[in-house]
Amino acid sequence: DVKVTQSSRYLVKRTGEKVFLECVQDMDHENMFWYRQDPGLGLRLIYFSYDVKMKEKGDIPEGYSVSREKKERFSLILESASTNQTSMYLCAIVDRADYGYTFGSGTRLTVV
Amino acid sequence: AQSVTQLGSHVSVSEGALVLLRCNYSSSVPPYLFWYVQYPNQGLQLLLKYTSAATLVKGINGFEAEFKKSETSFHLTKPSAHMSDAAEYFCAANAGGTSYGKLTFGQGTILTVHP
Predict the structure, then answer these.
(1) pLDDT at position A23
(2) Is the CB of B42 less than 8 angstroms away from the CB of A58?
(3) B42 touches chain A (CB under 8 A)
(4) Residue-averaged pLDDT of chain A
(5) Which residue, among B69, B94, B65, has the nearest Cα to B78 in the 3D structure?
(6) What one-character-per-residue DSSP string does B31-74 give?
(7) What is the pLDDT of residues A13-27, one digit of tens each?
(8) Is A38 within 8 Å of chain B by CB?
(9) Which residues does chain B have within 8 Å of residue A48's beta carbon, measured at their own beta carbons?
(10) Mean pLDDT of B23-35
(11) Chain B contact for A44, CB < 8 A?
């Protein structure tokens, strides 16, 4: 089974800091996604990537950027963290055969 | 744009009772549909999926869902709730085609099971 690893489970950062969230997969999947999860809002797509150096904005990209230099790694970057970016961040990959996601365990980010 | 609506942010049932979690989608083309479950302090895991084969889909832990095109619904059911079913449940849809596998999620339903 594919494994999706998010490097940090919990993070606390200060307002204005640049924050990097890392996601690594151990298979050769092209499509990788970053979502944020907030109570009552479900999961909302921030960015996704369909190949190395290829990216597209999701529904809520403002305040975020991404980097995909290698196929197995997809990074989410908060350029200048703000308190409204306090959230659970989930990385996922999709198996093209059935379009079901495999999620990482999530990073709970608190911006103070 | 595709949307997924889960009716009821909280559902409470007694142990042994029927579980019914509602999900409706908006799409001109029948999408792929999924239910995910998230236990406390854990990531999301796939419960079941509909990918245009049988309309009644069986998943893990005794859950099943029925795709009804006429009602644009994909409700999740379980005949008899167990305490271990307490979790948050998310319905999701994928339009397929060139959407790169993007999923649109509902708002989530927290299931509470009382003894």
Answers:
(1) 96
(2) no
(3) yes
(4) 92
(5) B65
(6) -EEEEEEE-TTS-EEEEEEE-SS-SEEE-GGG-EEEEEGGGTEE
(7) 999 999 999 999 988
(8) no
(9) 100, 102
(10) 83
(11) yes
CA distances from A50 to A32, A112, B57, B107 (A): 7, 33, 29, 25
**CB-CB under 8 Å, B96 with A90:** no
Q: Which residue matches tokens 């795709």?
A: B67
Q: Over range B51-56, report the average pLDDT.
A: 84
Residue A10: partners with Cβ closer than 8 Å, 6 or more residues away: A107, A108, A110
**Cβ–Cβ of A90/B9 closer than 8 Å?**
no
Terminal alpha carbon distance of chain B:
41
Nearest to B88 by CA among B111, B64, B61, B65: B111
How far apart CA A56 and CA A62 sit, in angstroms, is 12
Q: Which chain A residue lies closest to B50 (C-alpha atoms)?
A: A98
Say which residue the tokens 């990959």 belong to. A93
Greatest distance between any 2 Cα atoms in chain A: 41
> In this predicted model, what pLDDT tens digit does every residue of B77-94 receive, in sequence order?
999 999 999 999 999 988
Is the Cβ–Cβ distance between B37 and B44 less than 8 Å? yes
Q: Nearest chain B Cα to A40, which residue?
A: B107
Answer yes or no: are the C-beta atoms of B74 and B89 closer than 8 Å: no
